[in-house]
Each structure stands twice: as structure tokens, then as C-alpha cells.
Amino acid sequence: PQAPTLAALLTDYYEGRNAGAWSRNAKIGNLKNFAEAVNFLTEKGIATLDDLEVHIAVQSERAETINTSMKAKRDHLNELKELLRLVDLYRDTKPVYDELQGIKWKGKREKFELEHEKELRTFHMARRKLDKCRSPAGKIPAHAWEQEQARLQQEYKAKYEQYKPIQDNLRKLQQVKRNADAAIRQQEQTRQKQREVER
Fold first, then answer.
1. What is the DSSP secondary structure assignment for residue 134, as one 8-state letter?
2. Is there a contact between 85 and 174 (Cβ–Cβ < 8 Å)?
3. What backbone phi and psi angles, to 5 degrees, belong to 139?
4. Relative to the CA of 167, which of 6, 62, 113, 138 has its CA 20 to 30 Å away?
5. Rounded to whole angstroms, how far apart are CA atoms 68 and 71?
6. Collapsing DSSP states into helix, strand and coil, what is residue 139?
């Protein structure tokens, strides 16, 4: 026998839902969902379960490729955000460190260190981490990081604009697949019951 079309499977699925629906609103909702699904499939040129599975595989692969690229950009953005946070901490606490360096008397110096222990500890932590990133000239490339962050944010946004419609389509395709699978299961159960009755 010829495989049923998706439209036939969806008709069975929504008829089954309507049979169990209590309210008029639920039936109207089912009809609306059925019409949207059929229009979506027609628009995409999907008629059979095989077509649907091919489309799901293609869209999943495209979504995965873009998502991998987005994840790499997101990870790099997080690294840059942390580096720029360290730059801010370094800038905020450097005046305290410079003031300490200007104090020559041991007692006064120890008192100042105690009063500003938290700021000095923050300064040393930030400097230690940023020293690994200094340019050959000894500078912290904060401006280059800011530019790179802005560029990556733009690229990430562009990738997301590509990803969102693919993901939305994929969600719709997967919903149609679940509904078609439910209709097939229902048909098999009905046939099983008929065979039992015939025995």
C-alpha cells in the first residue's frame, strides 16, 4: 500500500484530538493548528513523511553549524569580558598601589597596607593576570579588546538572525513529525483492535 501523505496523517491526528475535545474553543484551536501545519508544509514543498525527515535532517545540520559558530563567539566574548573587567579593576586600584609606593616610612606603609588590603589584593590579582596578556611593548591591549568585543557582538547578532528562523522552522517540522507519528501509532492500535475483533 502507498504511504499516507502528511496531510492525511495530520487530518487523522487532529480528528482524534477533536474527538476528545470538550469545548468549541479547543476544536477551533485544533482546526487553526491543522491549517497552519498544512500551509507550512505546502509552502516548504513537503508532502510525505520521507520529505519531512529529509527537511528535519537538513535544518538540524544547518542549525548545528550556526550554533557551533555562535558558541565559539560567545565563549570568546566571555573571555574578553573577563579581561576588560580585570582592566577596570586594575585602573581602579592602581592609584592606591601608586600611593603605597610613595610611602617611605615603614610604620606608615604598614598602616596604609592594612587600611587598603582589599584594594591592594585586587590590584595584584588583576596585574598578575593581565601581565600574561601584555603586548611586546609592555602595554595592556585594552582598546584592541574593546574593538574585538564590539566586532564579535555584531557577528554574533548576525549569526543569531540567521539561526532564529532555521530554529523556528525546525521546531515546526519536529512538531509535525510528532503529530504524524502519533497518528501512525493510533492507526496501528485501531488495526490491532480490528484484528482482535475478527479473530
1. -
2. no
3. -95, 155
4. 6
5. 5
6. coil
pLDDT digits (tens, 9 = 90+) for 125-181: 999 999 999 888 889 999 999 999 999 999 999 999 999 999 999 999 999 999 999
Could you give the CA distance from residue 149 to residue 156 in angstroms, rounded to a whole number? 10
More confident residue, 75 or 4: 75
For residue 55, count other CB atoms closer than 10 A to its CB.
19
Please name which of 70, 73, 51 lies closest in space to residue 62, comparing C-alpha atoms.
Answer: 70
Task: Yes or no: say if 10 and 4 are a contact pair by the CB < 8 Å rule.
Answer: no
User: What is the rounded distance in angstroms from the CA atom of residue 34 to the CA atom of residue 27?
Assistant: 10
Helices 106-115 and 49-101, packing angle to 10 deg:
150
- The number of helices, as runs of H, and strands, as runs of E, in the chain is 6, 0
C-alpha cell belonging to residue 117: 588590603
